[in-house]
Amino acid sequence: MKILNRDVDYAVRALVLMARNDRPATPVAGMREEVRVSGPFLRKIMQKLQRSGFVHSVKGKGGGFALARDPGNIRLGELVSALQGGIRLNDCVSGGKLCAFHSACKLRGRLASMEGRLLEELAAITVKDLA
Amino acid sequence: MKILNRDVDYAVRALVLMARNDRPATPVAGMREEVRVSGPFLRKIMQKLQRSGFVHSVKGKGGGFALARDPGNIRLGELVSALQGGIRLNDCVSGGKLCAFHSACKLRGRLASMEGRLLEELAAITVKDLA
DNA sequence: AATGAATGATACCCAAATGGTATCATTCAT
DNA sequence: ATGAATGATACCATTTGGGTATCATTCATT
Ligand code: FES
Ligand code: FES
């Protein structure tokens, strides 16, 4: 039961870094040291963040990445949704492999609300909180 | 972000089944139909449950598995711990790959307490509840 | 004692997800 | 032109999850 995968982990570090020293553009080469990850991998993550609208990018010399949104409004829950996909619950529910008690089952609903609460808690944490 | 894996899923179904028709011993062959899973796989899971003390087993002809504990006291949280292992949080914490802000990081504690709450919620659900 | 129904233990295998690298194209300041 | 930067994408390697196969052991029945 791992809550955050690597992508989210590194993304958080990078975003926090950018939130701290608010520069017009930070290249990957200027972050990979502190984030403790290889350049190419961090770059791939940053590109995902760019596509999801968390950061914007500037190509060419002097370019790099910068926050596209107020760090106080970048919520962990959104990062999780963007970088490690949605909810799957258990296979009985999402995979269509129903068990014999399906109609009377009290489990599905409970799991759904649990996952909901989890995401709420994640949504309560912003990049600013962590900077 | 999947809460329950297959093992737990099938285990719950089997335990609920046993709680319903309280027989002295149910063989795997008598459960695999309703649980909707292959015999060998269910058997492997049942063996795990036996090793963890949730059920006891009787070998030989007429044997099988039976609940070793009151179904009202078999909690989902325990099943998760026994069948899909403990907590890993993110790699910054569990993997020892600390990031640059480790000492000041507010994330680890939050994740830990979130996971704790999740397990509490799971612990509130018993096999009896689901039967 | 022999048989067959059952679990115990363990090794193995396959597929999917995760984590990570490599390559080439594109943009842009100098 | 050059070189520093990202965009896009294909590829690879490791781990995990899900599942099968096999042989050993136990025990009720005959
Ligand atoms: S576990 Fe199958 S319906 Fe709930
Ligand atoms: S994410 Fe590294 S110390 Fe918190």
Please give a handful of descriptors for the protein shown.
homodimer, mainly alpha, Arc Repressor Mutant, subunit A, two-stranded antiparallel ribbon, 7 helices, binds FE2/S2 (inorganic) cluster, DNA-binding
Question: Topology of this protein?
Answer:
The structure is a homodimer of 131-residue chains.
Chain A: H1 6-20, H2 32-35, H3 39-51, E1 55-58, E2 64-67, H4 76-84, H5 91-94, H6 107-123, H7 127-130
Antiparallel strand pairs in A: 1-2
Helix pairs in contact in A: 1-3, 1-4, 4-6
The structure holds FE2/S2 (inorganic) cluster (2 copies).
One FE2/S2 (inorganic) cluster (FES) is lined by residues 92, 98-99, 101-102, 105, 107-108 of chain A.
The structure holds a DNA duplex (30 and 30 nucleotides).
What does this entry look like structurally?
- Two copies of one chain form a homodimer.
- Chain A has a single domain (6-130), classed as Arc Repressor Mutant, subunit A (Orthogonal Bundle), CATH 1.10.10.10.
- The first copy, chain A, has seven helices and two strands.
- Chain A is mostly helical and 131 residues long.
- Chain A has a two-stranded antiparallel ribbon.
- Chain A is elongated and about 60 Å long.
- The longest helix of chain A is centred in the last third of the chain and has 17 residues, at 107-123.
- In chain A, a hairpin with a 5-residue loop joins strand 1 and strand 2 (64-67).
- In chain A, 50% of the residues lie in helices and 6% in strands.
- The A-B interface holds A 1-6, 8-9, 12-13, 16-17, 34-36, 80, 84-85, 87-92, 97-101, 105-107, 110-111, 114-115, 117-118, 121-122, 125, 129-130 and B 1-6, 8-9, 12-13, 16, 34-36, 80, 84-85, 87-92, 97-101, 105-107, 110-111, 114-115, 117-118, 121-122, 125, 129-130.
- Chain A binds a DNA duplex (30 and 30 nucleotides) through helix 3.
